[in-house]
Amino acid sequence: MNIDGACHCGKVSFSAQIDPEKVMICNCTDCQTLSGAPFRTIVPAPIESFKLTGVTRSYVKVAESGSKRAQVFCPECGTPLYSTALENATQVMLRLGCVSQRSQLKPVFQLWQRSAAPWLSEIGSIPGVQTQLPPPPAIPVTTFNTSREIPATVEQVFAAISDSQRLARWWGPAGFTNTVSVCEFKNGGRWSFVMHGPDGNNYPNECVFADIESPRKVVVQHVVEPEFRLTITLASVAGTGKGTGTLVSWSQAFESPEVASHIEHIVVPANEQNLDRLSVEVLSG
Predict the structure, then answer these.
(1) Number of C-alpha atoms within 13 angstroms, CB side, residue 134?
(2) What pLDDT score was predicted for residue 257?
(3) Residue 238 has what pLDDT?
(4) Is 80 exceeded by the pLDDT of residue 237?
(5) 142 contacts 253 by C-beta, under 8 angstroms
(6) Based on the number of CB atoms within 10 Å of its own CB, is 139 exposed (0-12), middle (13-18) or buried (19 or more)?
(7) Residue 238 in contact with residue 255, Cβ under 8 Å?
(8) What's the CA dihedral at 216, 222, 223, 224 to 10 degrees?
């Protein structure tokens, strides 16, 4: 029977003549490892009938018997193509998975059954689908994370957060200012302020300092719409210049996936601008 085949990327192709009554399954542990599957299906082809086009690479495997065989594959996509003896080769053992006529070639014999996967006899009873499994439902994004390294100590960065006047100077996206009426920087303390946008609109905000661990962590609960929980953590890092720097991790978690999705295009750049302004405040402080 005349057959042909190719690797996955198509850069290596071949043709050969084979006997369909010699298609085999090999269950040896080497074939399992080299194929990445519980067994490998192979068919021998006389070497004089085998024609190959393209560049290949090979890996030499030493069998249990001590014989050495070249495992030939495509160097571009990694498709296993065939194996052959290193010396005095009379045939190649083609990998059935890259043969175009593979659906017509039913195995008639099995090798190395002592190492066969014990569940292979039950494979026909395993439920399946005709094509790929459908993708899992998308997990809605409710948390937006970012970070920034500031060339200052943790204490210096924390000071720019804990001081109400300094907090008012940098809080919010670019172009915003703040009028603070209450800022009780303590666990459970209120933070009430109005943000004044560059468009002339005012945005009242009510927050609670849900958790403060000086000088490493501040958690702000925004208690009016849109409800979210902002966690700011500070960690020392090796600075690029003198001294050390601080890695500011910023995690904003919204209560509602719908709200998060609706305002993501605003929140993501706004958080970056907030960190820009915090960096300026720390370095000017």
Answers:
(1) 3
(2) 93
(3) 83
(4) yes
(5) yes
(6) exposed
(7) no
(8) 170
The whole model's pTM is what?
A: 0.56
Q: Which residues contact 95 (CB under 8 A, 6 or more apart)?
A: 35, 40, 41, 42, 79, 80, 81, 82
What tokens appear for 256 in the block? Answer: 């509602």
Closest CA to 93 of 64, 69, 119, 115: 69
Mean pLDDT of all residues belonging to the chain: 95
